[in-house]
Amino acid sequence: MSAETIQSRREWLLSDRPASRLQARLGRAYVAWRRFSANRLALVGMLIIIALLVVAAFADVLAPYSPTVGDLKNARLLPPGAAHWFGTDDLGRDIYSRIVYGARWTLYVVILVAIIAAPIGLLVGTIAGYAGGWTDTILMRITDIFLAFPKLVLALAFVAALGPGIENAVLAIAITSWPPYARIARAETLTVRNSDYIKAVQLMGASPFRIVLRHIMPLCISSLIIRVTLDMAGIILTAAGLGFLGLGAQPPLPEWGAMIASGRRFILDQWWVAAAPGAAILIVSLGFNLLGDGLRDALDPRSGDQ
Amino acid sequence: MTTSITVEGLEVVFDRFRALKGVSLEVREGESYGLVGESGSGKSTLLRAITGLAPVASGTIIVNGKTLGKTRDKAFYRDVQMVFQDPYGSLHPRQTVDRLLQEPLAIHGIADGEKRIERALDEVGLGKGFRFRYAHQLSGGQRQRVAIARALILEPSILLLDEPTSALDASVQAEVLNLLEEVRRRRKLTFLMVSHDLAIITHMCERLMVMQNGQAVETLTASQLIGHRVSEDYTRNLLRASEGFVRV
């Protein structure tokens, strides 16, 4: 592609008078991307998350050994080396392979929690903010009750009630993480609900449901995306914490938190058993945080001409 | 001539504040009626009460022969539309002009959307080039034209104008006012227009009502106002103030 065609494409994207719906939408996305990519650290964060996705997708190819079946006889607690990059654990399983497969479970937890918690929070918050009055009071007091519990303790209680396992851990984390989203969505809703453009839609005879869904929610979504991305690190840590306490993923599932828990017993002599999954959690959490910061700069409705 | 809007003894109360204290007025069909007064005199509140945006405590509002209750139905909004004062606040920041204009058509289930949007944009003097722009890609005057197009797309018979030009600079003001005049003539619309600018009101309206502190001061025709044939002191003061600075 020559420099000229790139130049003309950029002009097409940044055009002041887009000729189609698609061009308008792409132009908008391009502006957001330019703002995002100006932030080097955010790009690093995005690369980490993309790497996580790739590792999870191609775990079968990338992992040299089975994540669950080890060589108890010959390969117990081997230090990092050429055969086992991150060493082996007490059951003779290759830690590198387990971390690679563990990426799948990390993504599974993070995505499921985001899919469950964010829409609940968004719905509760926008409805409370737009309806006001009794609806608002009831919904927000319920939110307050959930917020009053320490997150991990409430998740613990849920897992204890539902039984240990990664699905229940996901559910417990989702139940404990929607209240902040509801708060954010409500706050955003309160700032726009009395604006003239919402009034104008009311004057067209739109139902409250339609106004919330099509006019208010799109305005809340960017701050929500930012918050969810920043929370991803916390979700991973909570999942790891539950795994560490034996209430999340059950053996022999290669979940990072559970791996640290099982490495605890020999943390002084065979440090690599706990250190490798710990480093994985650290890097992925950092990636999500950097990505979230970048998204905040790119999507913040208060910055510039959104 | 039939009446389009009749308001009798209208009271609007926000919490404990009485914003309107028993205002009555009558707007004839096809007429352009002005509401004048200082800030806080209740002229915008009157418009908002008609559209259902302000809480009516007592009094009756009759629009095209129908007495309005607490809620307004969809048919009402096809008859009555409003243009807001601030064009920077009245367009959704995340929607293209296209989306903005499509919304009323979708709400009312009107089928020939494509044609209507093109016609509406033509009518307010914005070509096709503006159809897929976002609000931030438009100037103040262009935004107000989009707001007018949005109000007209449901083909209402009454247009409520809440200081439609006060946020625009002088040359753009004239353009928008001419556009409104033209639209009114072509569509035989009834206007109820709020302004604090007497010059605009005398230019646009045949009759007008002067308001102060939520009450009607007096009702005049435009020619009475031009000829300074007014009976109330308040109106006289208003006229003097509108003449602007006098070098001493």
TrEMBL record, chain A:
Main location: membrane
Stored InterPro entries: ABC_transport_permease, BP-dependent_transpt_permease, MetI-like, MetI-like_sf, OppC_N
GO cellular component: plasma membrane
GO biological process per UniProt: peptide transport; protein transport; transmembrane transport
Protein name: D-ala-D-ala transporter subunit membrane component of ABC superfamily
Keyword list, A-Z: Cell membrane, Membrane, Peptide transport, Protein transport, Transmembrane, Transmembrane helix, Transport
Membrane protein topology class: Multi-pass membrane protein
Similarity comment: Belongs to the binding-protein-dependent transport system permease family. OppBC subfamily.
Domain ABC transmembrane type-1 stretches: 103-292
Cross-referenced NCBIfam families: Opp2C
Bilayer-crossing regions: 41-63, 105-131, 152-177, 225-250, 270-292
Keyword Protein biosynthesis: no
Any Pfam family matching the protein: OppC_N
UniProt feature coiled coil, ranges: none
Location in or out of the cell: Cell membrane
Automatic annotation (TrEMBL), chain B:
SUPFAM superfamilies: P-loop containing nucleoside triphosphate hydrolases
GO MF terms, alphabetically ordered: ATP binding; ATP hydrolysis activity
A UniProt-annotated Pfam family: ABC_tran
Keyword annotations of the record: ATP-binding, Nucleotide-binding, Transport
CDD domains the record matches: ABC_NikE_OppD_transporters
Domain ABC transporter: from-to ranges: 5-238
Protein's recorded name: ABC transporter, ATP-binding protein
